[in-house]
Amino acid sequence: MSRLRACRSCGSTNLHPFLDLGDVALADNILTPEEVAAGGEPFHRLDVALCPNCGLVQLLEEVDPGVLFVDNYHYFSSFSDALLAHSREHALGRIEAQGLGPDSFVVELASNDGYLLRNFVEAGIPALGVEPSPGPAQAARDIGVDVVEEFFGDELAARIVAERGRADLIIANNVLAHIPDFQGFLRGMKTLLKPGGVVTIENPSVVELVKRCAFDTMYHEHYRYLSCTSVKNGAERVGLHLNHVEYFPDLHGGTNRWYLGHDDAPSPEALEWLEMEADLGAATPEFYDGFGHRVEQLKTDLLKLLRDLKAEGATIAAYGAAAKGTTMINYVGITTDLVDYVVDRNVHKHGRVMPGTHQPIRPVEVLVEEQPDYVVILAWNFAEEIMRQQAAYAEAGGKFIVPVPSPEVV
Ligand code: JHZ
Predict the structure, then answer these.
(1) Using a 6 Å cutoff on CB, does residue 322 contact ligand 1?
(2) Cβ of 274: how many Cβ atoms within 10 Å?
(3) Is 389 a pocket residue for ligand 1 (Cβ < 6 Å)?
(4) Which of 48, 73, 144, 370 sits most deeply, having the most CB atoms within 10 A of its CB?
(5) How far apart are CA 372 and CA 318, in angstroms?
(6) Which of 86, 222, 345 to mutate to test the pocket of ligand 1 (most atoms within 8 A of CB)?
(7) In what order do the strands lie in the sheet with 361-362?
(8) pLDDT tens string 4-46
């Protein structure tokens, strides 16, 4: 664990802190009750700063990535149907746009359980996943995806080039935020990319995060929060260029896909996004300064709602032992006297408890069996998918609470 002194992108020491959520448990440190009883569950300060020099938003307290992603990591991408469909569309779109075939080479950084690369493997396109988390890496191998079980950086990039050549396509979804060494990761991409090749990076947009008050997507695994501006600035420092931008409003609360390449050839969309962020002041302290108050208000409102419902005798459960759920319940203080248990589809999380607050994590079928009066959707980014899936619970009178952008009973 270390305290950030200088921007991870440009090195400026003029950092502007704008949010402090206090000490929060590690988002995916989902322990068994016995492990909790043995003591020593770690809590770390969760505070965030902007670098006004290059626009990068970043955590001030950095936890060692080995602790976050290797020791006890139970996130498997394949439990969301919507994410699987989105990823398949991405893969098929790239195969067509770049004319990828048996002579091409695709690398995915943070390939998790093979949820995306499986599409390239099925199409007979050579693909390699890089994934340091042992559980997801093994799940990918089990479905025929080739995986290097390591953290990515410049050194691994050089090794892959020496052994397998450069990549036509590098995909990095929800990972550029997840490594402390921002510049090393981008340098590795530059090393690995073929001339004329394409890098695609997906990550929730920090601009949307602020607009939607999605403070709970801030947790220790996310060392930084990205915008078109900060991605462009970071990429240019290693000799890559931002050439295109796409936007998926329903994915993880508003996700951008950034396209990088060796050549500087920005599309009209890339220029429009950069201009839009400049107009909003997305790299200035003013854009972030009111955020902390809005987050505090959300906490007050959600606590009041849950306490009032409890006072009326309601039973309340939650849906989604998501990483963002840890930030939400820990910061708001949703203890077991307010929410009894959390359900989740991910079998690897069952029998374990929520970090910090220790609600048991149970299979989703429990909702129709026990019919709690309310269910807080902690994985609110999948609210529609979850509500569709839980139609029987709703038909029997169950109600949902969506916590962001402000708590609402639906
Ligand atoms: P989910 C993830 O964060 C992982 P998390 C990661 N930290 C990241 O960067 C962001 O996304 C962007 C479950 N679920 O994906 C599965 C159901 O039970 O929103 C998950 O445990 N039933 C790399 O963990 C959780 O909810 C369902 O129908 O905050 C969702 O977690 C669906 C759709 C999901 O994000």
Answers:
(1) yes
(2) 19
(3) yes
(4) 48
(5) 10
(6) 345
(7) 361-362, 342-343, 316-319, 374-377, 399-402, 408-409
(8) 999 999 999 999 999 999 999 999 999 999 999 999 899 999 9
